[in-house]
């Protein structure tokens, strides 16, 4: 009886440590479920479009960096991904990749997916269907929830007495 439990424990450990397919070793987040300032994101995506490489210079150190912006997507939505230096050559359009330990940054109220220093981008064999008419999560204010504006039925004045609508008259702005 005791041998069976150790065998089960061994099988469980080999299943957990099996890293043959990086896409199956973690839970992937869909792009449509991303929110502003999320960290430690694991995403399976396909590169839809890759822009030209820009070279920028750091003001403090004078070091030059290469930057490239890509539009990536999955079956639910698409988002803008910023790549720096060596990661630019790693990513090609129409190929699938796995981003682990990524994060969402905000720029001009738009969400941008980034790899960061701890993140890793690895190629994936999984085929992903994307469409250009899917939700664009990089548009301004996409990550914010809409506020519902509810007006009370009975309004009060600053003195605390009933307002015009509560007394049966039309509101001030309705005529």
Summarize the structure.
This protein has helices at 2-17, 87-90, and strands at residues 41-50, 54-57, 64-73, 77-84, 96-107, 110-114, 120-123, 135-136. With 175 residues, the chain is mainly beta.
Helices and strands in order, then pairings?
Layout: H1 2-17, E1 41-50, E2 54-57, E3 64-73, E4 77-84, H2 87-90, E5 96-107, E6 110-114, E7 120-123, E8 135-136
Parallel strand pairs: 4-6, 4-8
Antiparallel strand pairs: 1-3, 1-5, 2-3, 3-4, 5-6, 5-7
Structure overview:
The chain has 175 residues and is mainly beta. The protein has a domain at 25-142: Nucleic acid-binding proteins (OB fold (Dihydrolipoamide Acetyltransferase, E2P), Beta Barrel), CATH 2.40.50.140. The chain is 11% helix and 31% strand. It is built from two helices and eight strands. The chain has helices at residues 2-17, 87-90, and strands spanning 41-50, 54-57, 64-73, 77-84, 96-107, 110-114, 120-123, 135-136. Strands 1-3-4-6-5 form a five-stranded mixed barrel. A hairpin with a 3-residue loop joins strand 3 and strand 4. The longest helix is centred in the N-terminal third of the chain and has 16 residues, at 2-17. The N and C termini lie far apart (84 Å).
């Amino acid at each position: 009886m005791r041998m069976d439990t150790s065998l089960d424990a061994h099988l469980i450990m080999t299943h957990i440590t099996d890293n043959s397919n990086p896409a199956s070793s973690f839970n992937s987040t869909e792009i449509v479920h991303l929110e502003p300032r999320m960290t430690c994101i694991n995403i399976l995506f396909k590169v839809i479009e890759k822009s030209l490489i820009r070279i920028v210079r750091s003001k403090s150190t004078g070091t030059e960096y290469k930057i490239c912006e890509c539009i990536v997507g999955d079956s639910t939505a698409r988002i803008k991904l910023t790549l720096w230096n060596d990661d630019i050559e790693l990513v090609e359009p129409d190929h699938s990749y796995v981003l682990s330990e990524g994060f969402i940054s905000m720029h001009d109220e738009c969400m941008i997916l980034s790899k960061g220093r701890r993140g890793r981008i690895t190629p994936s064999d999984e085929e992903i269907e994307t469409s250009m008419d899917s939700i664009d999560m990089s548009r301004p204010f996409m990550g914010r929830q809409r506020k519902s504006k509810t007006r009370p039925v009975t309004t009060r004045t600053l003195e605390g007495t009933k307002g015009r609508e509560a007394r049966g008259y039309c509101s001030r702005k309705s005529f």
